[in-house]
Specification:
The complex is a heterodimer. By secondary structure, chain A is α/β, with parallel strands linked by helices. Chain A contains ten helices and ten strands. Chain A folds into two domains: about 160 residues, P-loop containing nucleotide triphosphate hydrolases (Rossmann fold, 3-Layer(aba) Sandwich); about 70 residues, no CATH class. In chain A, helix 7 links the parallel strand 7 and strand 8. Chain B has a domain of about 230 residues. Chain B has 13 helices and six strands. In chain B, helix 1 packs antiparallel against helix 6, helix 2 packs parallel to helix 6 and helix 3 packs antiparallel against helix 4. The chains are: A alpha/beta, B mainly alpha. The interface between A and B is large, with 44 and 30 residues.
Chain lengths: ~250, ~350
C-alpha cells in the first residue's frame, strides 16, 4: 500500500456542550480519492475546518506528509500543501476569474512591495509565470473562456470549477473538496467526476466531502463515515456500502 | 507597457503633458489663489490614493487617515523650522516623514487586525483624534509641537539654493511660488500614480483585494492576512506622510486644527465618490471635492444677491449644505462612484440590460 499522506489522531472538537467531533482517527493515503460522508451535522465540515486551520481542535492532532500539522493558522496549512474549497462557495467576487486563480499562486511566489513598485526582471518573470499558470489552470477546469469575467458573474457550476482551480493554484499535495456537487444536476456532477478523476491521475490526493452517495461510491478509493461526530467505519466503498450501521445511519436502507 | 508606445497613445501622453504644463496658467487667469487651490487638489490626490490602498484595495474602513498626514506635516515642521533650529534637506525629511507615518500605520494596524467594518472605523476615528489631541497638547512639560499655536516659519521645499517659495525666471517666464510648487506636485503625483498602478497589479495588490473580498478564503489560499493588512496600513500611511511633509513646506505653517476629523472624512469621501479601488476615479474624486466647495464659496453669495437681492443664508452653511446634497445625490444615483473600475461598470450595465429584457 502507498504511504500515508494525512493522519488524524483522536481529533476532538466541541462547541459549548455540543461534541462536534470526538475521537476521530483516520488516514488518507498518497494518491487516493478519500470520501468523507455522513448525515447533515455529523461533523464533516468541522473536521475539514480543524484540518485546514480554521478551527483549533480541542484534542488530538494531525500529521501531514510526515510532520505534525500546526493547526492554528489556515495560511500555514496552505503552505504545507493543503488546499480546500468551501461548501458555500467563497470566491473573490469582484475580481476576475483569472485574478482569483492568480491569488492562489500567492503562497508559492515571493514578490514584495519593492518588487511590485520597481518591477525588476525577476518580479516581471514571476508575474508572467503566475499569469501563465493561472491561465493553464483555467483551461484545466475548462473555464478559460470566462477568464476576464468577474467571479460573481459566473454560473454556479463554473464558480465551483473556479474554486477548484484556485485551490489547485496553491500546488496542494492534498485537495479538500467540501460538497463540490451540491446543487449540481446530473450532467454537471458527471463532469465534476471526470475532473476529480483527472486531478487524481495528475498526482494530487483528494479528500471529498459529499452527499451524493453515487458519486462518492463511484469515485472514492476509500470512504469514511461520520455520525454524531464519531467515526463509524473507514474502508473501501464496497464494504462501507454493505455495513449495517452505515445503512441505518445514512444510506437509509 | 507595449501599447503605451503606439502612435495614438504617444499622442495622448503628449497632449496630457501639454495640458498639465498649461493648466496652472489657465487656472491662474482667475487669480493666483486658484493655483494654490489646484496645488491642494494635487495634495488631496496623494491622500486619496494613499487611503485608497487601505479602503479601496484592502477594504479596511479607516476614518483616522488624516493622522498620517499630520505625522508627515509635523515631521517636516520640526525638522525644518526655527522651532528646534533644525533645517534638514528635503531628501532627508521626506523619507523620515514617510517612515514615521509608516510606523504609525503599523502601530494603528496591529491592534486592529481582527476588526472589520464599523468597528475598525470607530477605532481608527479614535486614533485620528488621539494624534490631533497629542499635537495640541505636546507643548508641556517639554515644548515639542508648540500646542495649538502651531509651528511657523517652516522651510519651503528647497533643492540646494533653489527654493520653491520664491519667484524665479525660466526661459523668460516668471514663475511665482505656487506655480513652482505645482510642477513639483505634478511630478510627485505622476510618481505616486505609477506606484499605485503597479501595486494594484501585483502579487501584493491582488492579496489586498482578496482580503477585501473574502478574508477566510484569502487565508485558505495561504495569504498571511496579518502581514498583508499591516502592509496596506503602512503603505497607505506613508503616502499620507509624504503629502503631509509637502503640505507643511507649502504652507510654512502647521497647527493641529488642519488635521480634524472632517479632513479624514473628506479624503474618504473623495475615495468613495470617485470610485473605490479605481485609481482614475479616486483622482477625479479628489479634484472634484477640492474644487467644488471652493467654487461654491465664490458662487453662493453673488447667486443669492442675484436671486433675492440680499444674502439670506450664511454662505458657509449654504456651501456645506449644497456639498452634502451633491454627495447624497451621487451616492443615490452612482453608488459605485462617479468613475468606477471598468469591471464594476460592466457589471452594472449587465444588470440594467437584464432589467430591460
Amino acid at each position: 500500500m502507498s504511504e500515508v499522506l494525512l493522519e488524524a489522531r483522536s481529533v476532538a472538537k466541541h462547541f459549548g456542550g455540543v461534541k462536534a467531533l470526538q475521537d476521530v482517527s483516520l488516514s488518507i493515503r498518497q494518491g487516493e480519492v478519500y470520501g468523507l460522508i455522513g448525515p447533515n451535522g455529523a461533523g464533516k465540515t468541522t473536521f475539514f475546518n480543524c484540518m485546514t486551520g480554521l478551527y483549533v481542535p480541542d484534542g488530538g492532532g494531525f500529521t501531514f506528509a510526515g510532520a505534525p500539522l500546526q493547526a492554528d493558522a489556515p495560511q500555514r496549512a496552505a503552505e504545507r500543501g493543503i488546499a480546500r474549497t468551501f461548501q458555500n462557495i467563497r470566491l473573490f467576487g469582484n475580481m476576475t476569474a483569472l485574478e482569483n486563480v492568480m491569488v492562489g499562486r500567492h503562497v508559492r511566489t515571493k514578490a514584495s512591495v519593492f518588487g511590485a513598485i520597481f518591477r525588476d526582471p525577476k518580479t516581471r518573470a514571476e508575474e508572467a509565470a503566475i499569469r501563465q499558470r493561472a491561465l493553464d489552470l483555467l483551461h484545466y477546469v475548462d473555464i478559460a473562456d470566462r477568464a476576464d469575467d468577474l467571479a460573481k458573474n459566473l454560473s454556479y457550476g463554473d464558480q465551483r470549477r473556479l474554486e477548484i482551480a484556485r485551490a489547485l493554484a496553491t500546488e496542494p499535495k492534498l485537495l479538500c473538496l467540501d460538497e463540490p456537487a451540491a446543487g449540481m444536476n446530473a450532467t454537471e456532477t458527471e463532469e465534476l467526476r471526470v475532473l476529480i478523476e483527472g486531478i487524481r491521475k495528475d498526482g494530487t490526493t483528494v479528500l471529498l466531502i459529499e452527499h451524493d452517495v453515487k458519486l462518492v461510491m463511484g469515485l472514492c478509493d476509500r470512504v469514511a463515515v461520520l455520525e454524531y461526530g464519531a467515526l463509524l467505519i473507514e474502508d473501501v466503498p464496497a464494504i462501507v456500502q454493505k455495513d449495517q450501521r452505515v445503512i441505518e445511519a445514512y444510506l437509509g436502507a | 507597457m507595449k501599447n503605451l508606445l503606439s502612435p495614438r497613445s504617444t499622442l495622448g501622453i503628449v497632449l496630457i503633458a501639454a495640458a498639465l504644463i498649461a493648466l496652472p496658467f489657465v487656472v491662474g487667469m482667475a487669480g493666483q489663489a486658484w493655483v494654490r487651490i489646484l496645488n491642494f487638489a494635487i495634495l488631496y490626490i496623494f491622500l486619496a490614493l494613499g487611503l485608497n490602498i487601505v479602503v479601496g484595495f484592502a477594504g479596511l474602513l479607516d476614518l483616522g487617515y488624516i493622522a498620517f498626514y499630520a505625522v508627515g506635516a509635523y515631521t517636516w515642521a520640526l525638522l525644518a523650522s526655527p522651532h528646534f533650529g533644525l533645517h534638514w534637506p528635503i531628501w532627508a525629511i521626506l523619507p523620515v516623514g514617510a517612515l514615521l507615518a509608516c510606523f504609525f500605520g503599523v502601530l494603528l494596524g496591529s491592534p486592529t487586525l481582527k476588526l472589520r467594518g464599523d468597528y475598525l472605523a470607530i477605532v481608527t476615528l479614535g486614533f485620528g483624534e488621539i494624534v490631533r489631541i497629542f499635537m495640541n497638547n505636546l507643548n508641556a512639560p517639554i515644548n515639542i509641537t508648540n500646542g495649538p499655536q502651531g509651528i511657523t516659519l517652516i522651510d519651503p521645499v528647497k533643492f540646494g539654493d533653489f527654493s520653491f517659495a520664491t519667484r524665479s525666471e525660466f526661459f523668460g517666464v516668471t514663475l511665482t511660488g505656487p506655480y513652482k510648487y505645482y510642477y513639483l506636485l505634478v511630478a510627485l503625483a505622476i510618481l505616486i500614480v505609477i506606484v499605485n498602478l503597479r501595486l494594484q497589479d501585483s502579487r501584493i495588490g491582488r492579496a489586498w483585494q482578496a482580503i477585501r473580498e473574502d478574508e477566510i478564503a484569502a487565508k485558505a489560499v495561504g495569504i498571511n492576512t496579518r502581514n498583508v493588512k499591516l502592509l496596506a496600513f503602512a503603505m497607505g500611511a506613508s503616502f499620507g506622510g509624504i503629502a503631509g511633509g509637502i503640505f507643511a513646506a507649502m504652507q510654512g505653517f502647521v497647527s493641529p486644527e488642519s488635521f480634524s476629523l472632517i479632513e479624514s472624512i473628506m479624503v474618504l469621501a473623495m475615495v468613495v465618490l470617485g470610485g473605490m479601488g479605481h485609481i482614475p476615479g479616486v483622482i477625479l474624486g479628489a479634484i472634484l471635492l477640492t474644487f467644488l466647495p471652493e467654487m461654491a464659496r465664490y458662487a453662493v453669495t453673488p447667486a443669492q444677491v442675484a436671486l433675492f437681492g440680499k444674502v439670506l443664508i450664511d454662505p458657509e452653511s449654504l456651501r456645506m449644505l449644497l456639498f452634502g446634497l451633491a454627495l447624497v445625490l451621487v451616492m443615490r444615483f452612482k453608488p459605485s462612484g462617479l468613475w468606477p473600475s471598468p469591471e464594476r461598470s460592466r457589471e452594472l450595465a449587465e444588470k440594467t440590460a437584464g432589467v430591460a429584457k
